[in-house]
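Quick question: what would this complex look like in 3D?
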Amino acid sequence: MFMYRHRTDKSQNITDKPALTDIKDGQTGIIVSITGGSKAVKRLADLGLNPGTEIKVLRKTLFSGPVQIEVSGSRLVLGRGLASKIFVDPK
Amino acid sequence: MTVERKISIVLAGQGNAGKSTVFNYLTGLHQHIGNWAGKTIEKREGTLYYDGHTIDVLDLPGIYSLTTYSDEEVLSREYIIRQRPDCVVNIIDTTNLERNLIFTLQLLELERPLILALNMIDLVNRKGITIDFNKLRNILNAPVIPTVASRGSGLSGIIDKAIELKGTTTYHTIHKYGKEIENCIGQLAGLLQDLNLPYPERWISIKLLEKDGDIIKLVRERNPEVLEKAKRFCMELEEIHGHDSSIVIADERSHLASQITREVVKINPGNNISLSDRLDAVTTHKFTGYLVMIVIMGGMFFTVFSFGNLLSGWFDTIFKNWHSWWNDNVGITFLAALGWSAIESVLALVQIAFPYILPFYIILYTLEDWGYISRISFLMDKLMHKMGIHGKGCISFIIGLGCNVPGCLSCRIMESRRERFITAILVTLVPCSAVSVIVFGLVGKYVGLLWALGLYLFAMILIFLVGRISSRFITGEPVELIMPMSDYKTPDFRTIINQTWDAMKEFIYIAAPVVIISGVVIQAINMAGWMPAISSFLSPVTVNWLGLPSITGILLIFGILRKELILVMLAAYLGTTSFADVLTPQQMITLAVVSMFYIPCVATISVLWNEYGWKKALIVCILEILFAILLAGIVKRILDLVF
């Protein structure tokens, strides 16, 4: 009974979308795509960060440090490099 | 007639879910902590005697998925599949239910009996959230038990269920993926049936679609044709979904987890922003976060050292007459003197362990259990990155401030070997309590507190620079920080005591024997009358280059045992503790600098040896000796201009 219906979203166009590091603290967005090493991408997917997921940037640190995010009710901290490879559609 | 009934259960779960608390509660004193064969991963086993049953409990490492991301993950899944424990208990951090369920779904795929322990249910309820356990049970067709591990509530329910499940062959509802994926899984599983692999076919099929390196290798050896087929399926899925097939699978799992969460979780409205959220906002804020960090860390230091000095002075008065008592009653023979040096080592270890290390770890683990330490990792991540590691390394540094031995061992929290090694090198440069005794007892007392604090700042800058340099030379791809941040919660006394005890155990079992044995050896060398020769051999360095009295050669050799011996023996040699009468301020600062960095103590060296091999341990020691001598000489020359 629990079957996931697929979204038709196949958007891979990342160039015009802001990265997590580009949006404001407190802003929410839908993940469009995640680039970067396959291992890290897989790890993020296992933590629930997939294209189509809603994600909120809680806050960043000074001097372009890591980013604190909220995704599906959990809080995560992502290193800057990784966060800059997650592209979102801001709400 | 009694039949011995044995049951084996494993605890699996993500970090911070309270797995260790459950483990400690269940096994109490009947636990054995060692290493997994051939790996530097901690293996925690224990036994529970319950209602006529002997229950073996194994605590798997805290992991976030069952891929091949880290050794811990590979080990966990191999263990569950190959050792076939009677039951897997999935400890779930219910405050992060959705994320934890993704892991649960992966555990279900391993096809072993599974019990879900919804831990920290009290925190969830306090947030105004209720969870429909029956619904969750029905969806997964697995037992669901709400627990509060810190209070032990619900834990006997887990054991009752485990006993009930023993020997049953009814499996849980294994979730289904989308139609086209199930089609691929079905076809692959069919092909795998004849291969007789030690894993469930469905699981292998899923792993093939996830492009799991280990499984691909395994299947290639048995039947490369299946692999070809799997590759074609992967491409098909990528064509349909527009993402890598491994992401497609993970995506389905996380959507399922979110669907289940929505079904079973009920949020009661009317709840405002929680205290934890407000605390989080302050403690991770761009400005106030750093301010709070400085206040908390500074306060911790101040507390530990003012308490430590008090207690240490108290111990001094107790142990004062023991040596003369020993000489009077045992005699002054060669063996008696060696015996005394062993006793002296024990007394000295007591004097550093109780006044400084113990309170340090109690405070540290209170902060950790409260939830603060991960905030420091967040704040410090950027700085750590400059040293080639990430924010979590900061935790090892802080642990190292108590004692370098647990500090070095804690580097296992880093994901890659490269990061572990860099962190370990840097931890050996962190001034531990013994070094702090020198810094405060010598420089702080006779030159000025600001100078002592300046030395700490100096150490921090140095660690930073060494980190920068070593990250250039130790090759490998840097790992990015991915760290869950849990809510603040009331620290649990039991957990704090357990963690403190674990750190103290490392100090007692690893550091103490090495220190005592080498103490006796060095004492023997001393009594053989070779020390003056050694100190005059070292005098070009100690006297000419560093401008210190020639006795420091011997002190530095003893200091390898335990750093604070440098100060203790200096006092014994001079016959006074008013160091200012015999040493100039430059000399005191120079000696403190040498003591801080010149070599890790024997106990730390033995840990480095164990974890990274003797070659790396040796290289670290030699480089640190050369580096500290060079550095202290330069410091001395600069100080000569200042004073």
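Answer marked as accepted. The longest strand of chain A covers residues 28-34.
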